[in-house]
């Protein structure tokens, strides 16, 4: 297996302790859990998404555990502005705030609360099951560009998390790039559903949800590969990563760093597990690896 040299990395203006970042949504709802993931080897952490008003989320069941992944329809539950105090103890740490809104003004307002308190923002333009939010905006290149600009124009590093639920993800990636994104994160969950044959009803309270975990890894690799050919800004690979070899594969597709989410629910020490296999002092430089599957 390819191993790489360890060391800090800066992606899209955010300084990380290594290439492995906690993805939004998993263990990202409290300052304590985010802090724990940093102490367990995450190179940076992304918070659970925070929006302009408090939200309870969708009615349950909100999560279904599948053989090869998780199906969720949480519905973006969050305490809104109160989350600023929740993460105050993490000042100076590599914490990226995931934020959402229905329009550029709301994105700018939410970003304003966190300005000076986080290392950067990740715009959630990709949740596949929240009316008016996420992919409802993130499938329209003009809105993606405008929402990105509303945050990036503050000068704070801005990552944009993309939905795979589009015909051409490169059109959305390029829109984020035009809007001033420092990096793009690919991908958020794949819109999906399961039906309980016993109950003759959808399993999730919201009926539709987002699929994450190993089932979507090949979709993530394909999206990163396409984005690498179309965009100049760095790409952060996300979706079903569970091993060091998965990280290397994402890098070969074009990712400069990766986010890990669902795997954390199976192994709280996943960052240490992957780092132990991925890094070696005599490993190769990442520049040799990133995008090497192209051409
Ligand atoms: C949720 O809270 O519903 C999940 C967020 C997302 O898919 O981005």
Question: SSE layout and pairings?
Answer:
Blueprint: E1 9-11, E2 14-16, E3 20-22, H1 31-39, E4 44-46, E5 63-66, E6 69-72, H2 83-86, E7 95-99, H3 104-114, E8 120-124, H4 135-138, H5 141-152, E9 158-162, H6 169-178, E10 183-186, E11 190-192, E12 195-196, E13 201-202, E14 209-212, H7 217-230, E15 235-238, H8 244-253, E16 255-260, H9 262-266, H10 270-278, H11 286-289
Parallel strand pairs: 3-4, 3-16, 4-7, 7-8, 8-9, 9-10, 10-15, 15-16
Antiparallel strand pairs: 1-2, 5-6, 6-14, 11-14, 12-13
Helix pairs in contact: 3-5, 5-6, 6-7, 7-8, 8-10
Q: What structural category characterises the helix and strand content?
A: alpha/beta
- Beta-strand percentage range: 15-25%
The CATH superfamily appears as Aldolase class I
Q: Which bin fits the share of residues in helices? A: 25-40%
The succession of helices and strands, N to C, reads EEEHEEEHEHEHHEHEEEEEHEHEHHH
Total separate domains: 1
Strand order of the largest sheet: 3-4-7-8-9-10-15-16
Distance from first to last alpha carbon: 22 Å
Bound molecules: succinic acid
CATH fold field value: TIM Barrel
User: Which descriptor suits the 3D outline?
Assistant: globular
Q: What's the Cα radius of gyration?
A: 18 Å
Structural description of this entry:
The chain has helices spanning 31-39, 83-86, 104-114, 135-138, 141-152, 169-178, 217-230, 244-253, 262-266, 270-278, 286-289; strands at 9-11, 14-16, 20-22, 44-46, 63-66, 69-72, 95-99, 120-124, 158-162, 183-186, 190-192, 195-196, 201-202, 209-212, 235-238, 255-260. The chain is α/β, with parallel strands linked by helices and 295 residues long. It has one domain: Aldolase class I (TIM Barrel, Alpha-Beta Barrel). Helix 5 (141-152) runs parallel beside helix 6 (169-178) and helix 7 runs parallel beside helix 8. The longest helix is centred in the last third of the chain and has 14 residues, at 217-230. The protein is globular and about 50 Å long. The protein starts with 8 loop residues before the first strand and ends in a 6-residue tail after the last helix. The mean pLDDT is 97.
